[in-house]
């Protein structure tokens, strides 16, 4: 298939990805994710989906302390793609939440998580106590019709002061309105002194586009962005 026509992706993969992004209600989408769980990793491999790798690499680069003891929360953890990447970089204490029971079942089978919980973010709070995690990741779920940008204060609540938040979103045309909303919310929290921005990295080849309209300048890929924030107050290094 020429790259211009359907981007060279198998039609079934294109349809499954499109269905999830198009899902009318949150519950409808979660049901689609349940059904997608078994084929999800093959499909994202076909998409050349780089967000888990890029996010984990960025977080590891920003993270100052020893990684093995650090407690991390992987929000919208899916089948555990982010956990694999974090584990490879020495993070061992991983907790995950997702709105799809089917996805959580897959994540459980990886053996990478100490704790997994069903949680529909945006509809219910996280079950974790305040200031519990050294880092929180939300990779791939901050998008149109998925996790709303209104969850940011809840993510901050469970993060320790000085802890890190690693977030990603897509920059393809159908997500631009959401991205603008997200960035407005990120900026507002920064101006209020809740956190400081360490990184906002635009990545051109985020994943393969499922349609010509979504493709960045005809590359056949869509672009995305990785954000790293640090919750205030940032602990000062001891003098002496």
TrEMBL record:
Cited Pfam families: Methyltransf_25
InterPro entries on file: Methyltransf_25, SAM-dependent_MTases_sf
Location of the Methyltransferase domain: 73-163
Name recorded for this polypeptide: MET27 protein
Organism: Brachypodius melanocephalos
Highest classification ranks of the organism: Eukaryota, Metazoa, Chordata, Craniata, Vertebrata
